[in-house]
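Why run this: before we spend reagent on co-expression, it is cheaper to look at a predicted model of the complex and decide which construct boundaries make sense. The entries below are exactly what would go into the expression plan.
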Amino acid sequence: MSTTVDTARDRMQLAKDAARTVGLLSDSAKRDALLAVADAIEVAADRIIAANGDDLAHGRDNGLSEGLQDRLRLDDVRVSALAAAVREIAALPDPVGRVLDERTLPSGVRLQKVSVPFGVVGAIYEARPNVTVDTTALALRSGNSVVLRGGSAALRTNAVLVAVIREALAAAGIDPQAVQTVDDFGRDGARELMHARGLVDVLVPRGSAQLIETVVTESSVPVIETGAGVVHIVLDASAPLDWARDIIVNAKVQRPSVCNAVETVLVHRDAAPRLVGPVVAALQEAGVTVHGDAEVASLAADIVPATDEDWSIEHLSLDLSMHVVDDLDAALAHIRTYSTHHTESIITADDANAERFLAEVDSAVVMANASTRFTDGGEFGFGAEVGISTQKLHARGPMGLAELTSTKWLARGAGQVRA
Amino acid sequence: MSTTVDTARDRMQLAKDAARTVGLLSDSAKRDALLAVADAIEVAADRIIAANGDDLAHGRDNGLSEGLQDRLRLDDVRVSALAAAVREIAALPDPVGRVLDERTLPSGVRLQKVSVPFGVVGAIYEARPNVTVDTTALALRSGNSVVLRGGSAALRTNAVLVAVIREALAAAGIDPQAVQTVDDFGRDGARELMHARGLVDVLVPRGSAQLIETVVTESSVPVIETGAGVVHIVLDASAPLDWARDIIVNAKVQRPSVCNAVETVLVHRDAAPRLVGPVVAALQEAGVTVHGDAEVASLAADIVPATDEDWSIEHLSLDLSMHVVDDLDAALAHIRTYSTHHTESIITADDANAERFLAEVDSAVVMANASTRFTDGGEFGFGAEVGISTQKLHARGPMGLAELTSTKWLARGAGQVRA
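The model came back. Tokens follow.
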């Protein structure tokens, strides 16, 4: 184990080696280690904030947008929030060692399928220091090593965070090599991570649609795609006005910048005269700009004409696209064309239409008469969220700690051979 | 839906469109359709065997090896076996629509996590007609469309099999576009399939290590890696001779050409004088050539000197590599270096060592005192086997029908919004 050469692959190998011991840690050892990490983050607040100040100054000099600066910025309150998030993850039940299946073969061999850590989890994300801390805590809680590649604008902040976490782990008797960053290798670090098949067991990209697309396309390591949400709400012919108005305003306005916010509302033609006016008025009162087709514009004031682009865009802002459709079939066809398979909801008083929608829409979460904002690990009761998977392999929808584990089969025999 | 242009992508789009209706079929509709497919295969036996004869003649002319010719060959008995396999798959329980999780949120929204078909399953495999039929039946039983790319040496056989299956589906009222082949596009067909992200939901390669490596490296569609098995058996210091001999002979000799056959035996130094002689003698009596290190050669006759290559090779023949190791730590280190993470077994009378081995070995199936030949969907009671996954994402170990499904969350509310 030479330390004279230090490449991205060397660090991933160290993470893999460390995964052997981290994967065997007891529930309490992992919990205690994370509590120590949380304390260490608070103790190191000044050091973290100073490094973050350097990143921010560098960002300002290089034209980093106000929005990205805000996501990057740490202060005392936010550092405390980082530590609090680690403590919440520490308090979650251990996802490792659950017996998921059990059977005795005719020969008497006893089989158990148990949950085990992946080994090494890779993360590629943007300049958000909270993702560094969250991802590390989630990986360690589930017995995994982690290899981090954050946005370069957070290079100094992440370096200090990783150093603080590693110091705390070492003090708690846990191999600090379980936490690695490849930030300092720049784009090469990301590239090595995407091609570290055999060293890294799963890669989770978090961030813009473009970042995710790059990782999904380039990576030979298995990826869990966490995704963009072009989220639809369908107002069926029978949709009650109060549900329609409350759910759409909640789904758009409560937190417009997140993936479970609604982007497009499809209105059944028979309900359009009854619903479009008051729903649009409620949205506009809440500050939303409605992009609508001609029929929407004929039923409400101040409609921005919708372009073809509006149907496929994730606004992530107080903008909403609205389209009148002939019937439920047309709504389902529109969703098939434009959905990113994250979350869709129908508002209807017709149970048969609700059940048809639930059965036919091919998305991670399909709802009837509820706000799409419920698609969230915390809301689902997982206690923490690794991301929201929009792929069908391994995990779909909000991912909790359980989704950071794999399984293995254990077979216990007494000399049995196959007949 | 133009039929004037016919590309590999067109066919995948047809498979995707068909998946919508196939995914909603009832248990009995899927079962009846497969029974009709089985009947149709038997009725078409002459047509299938004639096409297979053409493939065989073409293969002989082009130097196809005897072994590959045998795997390609169909006769009346083998065609009946194809039909019988389809009937067995028809008789399995429907893996779709199982409720895997259920919870009511504080707001009263009712959540269900249910199993759903993937949509479109892609398969890339070699010139084995039984894989064409098996894979299609497994995909349809789990409500999926399938896009097939078999070995070119089976082109004519597969074309007839696919035609027969599609005719039977159409007669049963099921969209025949659910079954597609891209064989006739040659290498381009395989390439399009590996890059059909958005059309194909999961790709399952079956065949040689090289085929799997190519698919894993090149594909941007999520892959389930089914794998090569450099399978190890460890003889601990306390291994009983009868278990050691019976299990190793069974694991090597019963069917040497399959992935769960043992390739390497690691013998604890303390047990070597007691075990190597009789185990090697039993193997040699069964026709096995033992490749051993110097220590093995000093304890038994007719040992072929092992080369470095022997430790990483999947013999798939009546050859076995044998190595004496210092202790359990050394055995675990050897397995970490050379295992393909398929199946490993320890033979021991020491429960603590057995449990340590079960905990520390990072393979899909880890055994104590049982033959590695038990790693098999049929043996595990799954009724059918899609393959044996050696990756950690989604499925690990023998895969049954359940592993050809994804999940989705259904949320049923009454106007709830997020607080």
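The first helix of chain B runs from residue 8 to 22. The mean pLDDT of chain B is 95. Bring this page to Monday's planning discussion.
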